[in-house]
Model the fold of this input.
Amino acid sequence: RTSLCSYGSPELQITCASMVTMARYLNLPCFCTAGCSDAQEFDQQAGMEAGYTILMQALAGGNLIHDLGYIGAGMTSSMEMLLLCNEMAGMARHILRGIPMDRKSLALEVIEAVGPGGNYSAEGHTVDNFREVLHFGQFGELLSRAARNRWEAQGAKSFGERARERARQLVATHDPGQLPGKVAEAVRAVSRRGDGEV
Done:
């Protein structure tokens, strides 16, 4: 209807997943978009579109999933959206790990020893291993998994408010460091070639 590319549409995601399938058949890498939205601001629509697109393209198996944090159909971006996408990408990676089917994970000896009605939480195997299967998030403070009274005691902040605070903190404190000398010179050489210099 508008001739704009709809970043949040299911049709785009089906197309990207189809491209991944074809690229795999041809043994080629594939570029997909996800974590982007048609929403004009960081809102519920943006979060919904980012979440489902990241999970869908991760499940499809794309080699390079791009456009995380883009809103307004790719015309701008949002630091809060980028942080949301970072959390969602971590969740997608966690989901893709699946459930390992090895001796340690199955813990058949523990199941036999504890039996039906027993308390697995008190078992040493559980205590030693439960953290490996939990996802705490990339920046643990962004996702709220607290009871309501605790959430209220912590200021009753929405995800958007927490993401905005974290984004400002990252911008103010992040130090990306310097590229190694040879890498920096190689980048400058490419830039000079692009500018017509030799």
